[in-house]
Amino acid sequence: MYAKLRTPVRAAVLGLGLVALPALAQNVAKVNGQPIPQIYMDVIVKEQVAQGLPDNEQLRQAVKDELIRRAVIAEQAKKAGLDKSPEVKAEMELARQGVLVRAYLKDFVAKNPVSEEEIKNAYEKIKTMYSGNELHTRHILVEKEDEAKDIIAKLNKGTSWDELAKQSKDTGSKDKGGDLGWVTPDMFVPDFGTALGKMQKGETSKTPVKTQFGYHVIRVDDVRPQTPPPLEQIRPQIEQQLQQQKIQKHLEELVAKAKVE
């Protein structure tokens, strides 16, 4: 039974059991005379549909079965006096607070949406981060400086880069000819990044570049100006980040106003 329902269903059922609800004319079922309100079903189904599950008879039956199971277990827990346990009471209160917190934040987001102007302003700031060039880079990493010098010497004599790259210690790139893709110097440790930043298209490092990982021979295949991704490509991430900032600022203001002793 549990495998048929996504984890949030069980959490939602638990949360619903802690929230006082008005008497309803329609119930999902009765367990030992105690009704399970239809709204319990409605809330959980809505949540599951939002997560991609289809609203069908199979889902509703699974939710109903889970609600009945919960009601039976909860009744037995009360008979055993577990609801009087300080720890259980604390957990129930925390769960109740969690439901209220989620409801409050959902309401706040609905009333304080991110505007198109805010999104565009944030995108303009992102665009300023894309200055300079990015380089299509390869490298061969070895343990000793003499090994790196030997590789450079062999390259100068016409040995294939791809052949030499097979001895690289970098297992992530050795089978791809040491290809690191399109990168910028600030993506690497300082010594590597500094050396890379001084290189031109088609250039191979003339001396080994030492880092904490070993000795590198670096090659730059191509250079192009950095360009930011289109706004529409990163719009969801920008909107989510801005919304989180709004929430964080609001919560900080609420806490600052609260009397905490």
UniProtKB/TrEMBL annotation:
Domain PpiC: residue ranges: 132-222
EC numbers, comma separated: 5.2.1.8
PROSITE patterns xrefs: PPIC_PPIASE_2
Range of residues in the leader sequence: 1-25
Sorted UniProt keywords: Isomerase, Rotamase, Signal
Listed GO MF terms: peptidyl-prolyl cis-trans isomerase activity
Domain of life: Bacteria
SUPFAM superfamilies linked to this entry: FKBP-like, Triger factor/SurA peptide-binding domain-like
InterPro entries: PPIase_dom_sf, PPIase_PpiC, PrsA_foldase, Trigger_fact/SurA_dom_sf
Enzymatic reactions: [protein]-peptidylproline (omega=180) = [protein]-peptidylproline (omega=0)
Keyword Repeat: no
Signal keyword on record: yes
Family: Belongs to the PpiC/parvulin rotamase family.
Name of this protein: peptidylprolyl isomerase
